[in-house]
Amino acid sequence: MSVHKLQKTAVASLIAFSLVLFLCAGLTAQEVTVSSTDGSPASGGSSAAAQDDPDIAGGYKIKSSIEFGVRFRELDGNEDKYRSDLNYKAGPRLFDSSFYATSEETDGKPFDSFLVKSSGWGGDPNGYARINIGKIGWYEFNSMIRRFKYFNSLANFALGEHTQNTVHNMGDFNLTLLPQNRNFKIRTGFSFDRNSGPGTTTFDYDRDEFPIHFDYDTKSYDFRVGGDLSFGGFNFSLTEGYRKFEDKTTWFIEGFEQGENPGGASLDSFNRMMPIDGKTWYHKLTGHKYWEGVAEVSGRFIYSETETEFELDEILTGTNRQGNPIISDEYFANGDSSHPNGNGDIGVTFFLGDRVQISNTFSVTSYRISGGNILNNPTIITMPPASVSEDLVWRFTDYERYMNTLEGNVDVNKFLNFFLGYRYTDRKVELRGLDEDLQSTSSSTFLEEGENTTNTFLAGFQAKPFGRKWRINFDMEAGDSDNPFTRLSNNEYWQFAVKNHFAPIDELSVSVSFETKDNSNPGLSVSDPSDILVADVKSTHFGVAMSYMPNSTVSVNGGYNFTYLNAETDIIIPTRNFGNGIGMSIYDLRSHYGYFDVWFRPHPRVSIFGAYRISKDTGSGDDFIGPSRTIIGSYPLSFQSPEVRGAVRLTDNIDWNFGYQYYRYDEKFDVPFHGGFVSQDYSAHLPYTSVTIYFGRRD
Amino acid sequence: MITKKRVKAMFFGVFATILAAWLVYGLQSPTIGTPVAEAVGPPEITPANQDDYIGSETCKACHEDQFKGFAETKHAKLALLDDWKDKAQGCESCHGPGRVHVEEADPTKIISFKDKSPKQISDNCLTCHAGKEDHNQYRRSEHYRNNIGCTDCHSPHGTAQHPTQARSITYPAKDTEDNPGLAMPKMLKASEPQLCLSCHQQAKAQFSQPFHHKVLEGQMNCSDCHNSHGGFEIKNARLAVGADAVCIKCHTDKQGPFVYEHLPITVEGCATCHNTHGSTNAKMLKRNQVRQLCLECHTEILQPELAPGVPGFHRQDEARTANCTVCHVRIHGSNTHPAFFR
Lengths: 699, 342
Description:
The structure holds two protein chains of two kinds.
Chain A: H1 3-27, H2 48-52, E1 56-57, E2 60-71, E3 74-77, H3 79-85, E4 91-102, E5 113-119, E6 121-122, E7 126-135, E8 139-152, E9 163-177, E10 184-205, E11 208-231, E12 234-247, E13 250-252, E14 257-258, E15 266-273, E16 276-291, E17 295-319, E18 325-352, E19 356-381, E20 387-413, E21 416-437, E22 442-463, E23 470-481, E24 492-505, E25 508-524, E26 532-551, E27 554-575, E28 579-603, E29 606-617, E30 630-632, E31 637-640, E32 643-649, E33 654-667, E34 671-673, E35 676-678, E36 682-695
Parallel strand pairs in A: 28-30
Antiparallel strand pairs in A: 1-2, 2-4, 2-36, 3-36, 4-5, 4-6, 5-7, 7-8, 8-9, 9-10, 10-11, 11-12, 11-13, 12-16, 13-15, 14-15, 15-17, 16-17, 17-18, 18-19, 19-20, 20-21, 21-22, 22-23, 23-24, 24-25, 25-26, 26-27, 27-28, 28-29, 29-31, 29-32, 31-33, 32-33, 33-36, 34-35
Chain B: H1 4-28, H2 36-39, H3 56-60, H4 64-70, H5 74-77, H6 92-95, H7 99-104, H8 118-129, H9 142-145, H10 150-153, H11 194-197, H12 201-207, E1 211-212, H13 222-225, E2 260-261, H14 263-268, E3 278-279, H15 290-297, H16 319-322, E4 333-334
Antiparallel strand pairs in B: 1-3, 2-4
């Protein structure tokens, strides 16, 4: 369908839909009371009984609404990028809907609070439904079901060959029995997670890369039961849980595939199955005791053990890079891994009078990950001759971390408090491995260790110069670590943040925040200690936000955020002609985010919402490619989304909504893609109309 | 010449001066010397004299608006439970006995929280709410030490009823009278994420980037990953199953354990490479080009197995070998290949 036709269809549908709604409204017009002379919203009702008690049903006070409608879509530009970012589709849509029933009396009723809330079903890529039911003293049931339609197909990620079009469903269900009992509670829970759908990825074979398909299929289930016990002022909670997960993803090609390497290998067939099954048993015990005005102690102990088993069955045919037919190249493997993990934490706070608190928190984490496999690789190739390899592998990772935080907190007066603190961590990781060729019985082992400590000083204050109307928070942190495991970790760093919240009158609030970090992380080359390689990251964030609601008919919100990030890292870059050499990775983020929204009610029956949001990153400006051995990875882009929406109250129980949203994404540079360049820019027009039906609406 | 060090020194000098001034001002404050407990004092839950308690219905006569909201809350319904019969109930469970206040019509003869500090107010709430696993660390949390108290987020009188209004087409609105949400049973002042973002405005910008977790859209809540009441983890992060990072709960295929682990994930966590709120880069990565993330670590500054350097044939001037994850597909961990090919 052409864009022009689509526009016409959308407009005609909007008009027809509106007409039907107005006709419906006309039929119920007799029930609508004219708005009062003082300008208060119109009120109306359907019956005399309802007028007396319009929202009571079966002893429950009910508030409910459901909004459903249809969205249209007109898209210009790169659809893959649009779907990767937004994925809003044309068609019917169920937006914000809720049902809330409460009763002040509980006797003889199965529940005294019942909430069902859902949003985003239909043409939206993400939807959720929440159910919360409770009866005071007896039970509380909380649940959340979510669905994400995930689409990813980007030209600038993995040569555009890693794509995904999956649906991710998740659910969490928790039931607490005797929730208000002061001595004893029982908790149970269940969660599920299912992610499935098609996609494409790549496979490295014979020094060549092949695009392949996959059917993604992962599941997990989590069961838990526990309880809370209180006696003598001590509080304990115990949770016992079991989690099962599996990955049944399969990989394949649909026909002949030529690899990325010109003149390299090719595949005629490829199939891989690699099912993984895993389970986790976990146990958590927490304790707490508060001695009023003297001290408070809380602790936690967690132990879990995760085990996985896997099998690999991969077979392919084709032609190798020497041009010899591959009659069969198979990989069979099986193995397992385990991950026992223990966490212990204890925190103690002493209250020295009413104004001073000193607390200390100590945490220890320890785990081991061990895994092994046996890999068989029988190969039948015309040249070189058939071969079989069989390898045994073991890997062990041991990790320990101790962390202690000492903090002091002083309330100087009701206008000012400050805190000081010191955090120390000590971490150690050990990696061991065994590789054995079972055919030749030759083997090799390795052992590597890493350790680092960090020292961090914390300080800050909060001031309230005019009581609650003005609040200033200041936090600062300065620290260092030796030999961090990743260069993106903190080494010698400092940061401070100021937050300022000002609300001179109830109707107006203004927030201003500023935060800056500086992290310098030098390292020495293992192969050539004379090379000092520095990772230097500086970032600053500034934000201001304003909210103003002078009366019940107007509200205005706006804000601006600026994030500056400058990361310059010495790296070793291999190039075709010059081999490995020291170069630089540069990432400059200059992100501006501004938003503005206004809502107003020009008439008791009409309310209008308008908003504009823009995220703009100026990156490294005009620099697309840096000097030799320099990688620049920050390119200017902008992402903006204005929208407007109106709601017209047709009757007491029905609103008609109409709106329009526009998305526009622009990148300064086109993206290199398979020898050429492709633009990822797009713009999308999304008109929308819906009705909202209210039950138990009150004026 | 103004050097960076001098600027820093000047900044801290100004800061130290302001702080000292505040401390001196604080010492001269008339509130100093007044014991906090005396000024506020958590109300005694068990009344010394039952006759001093007059019941919430009496409060309703003057405080109808507060009573109306309060009557729908769990706080009000506690009076219906046998377990709480011997405890002060209703309004007086927090505000203390009201007889004198009513008889003398004296607003000073009842506990009012208007002038109390967030910590004092929170202490009052914790007389009942302490001991719950989620609340155990509250007095050591970042919120507590920054004077963010229970009533900065919760409304003990019931959630305020916002008027229904037109709203964004894609972002769910605050809970309203006609479109209630979780804020009401949880007695929050507003629904998530609006409540959290009113202070954490930087997160709003992050969640508005092209690639982001669907928090503004309502599918995820801040409290899915953070425990706002505090915890043993930095940033109040929650732990998921088996003490792994909270990310694993949803990203099941990254859980492992794998025969070949990618150490940054197990040692440093997912946030080593990902901006967990949102990013302008695909997959919420911290760099636009994946190879930058890889090369910034794989530069021979650690031992070969911990972080091997990049072999010479990984030519960065050729597209094939400059996109690391085209070959190293299973970068989160692999069971069959030490270089994460499969």
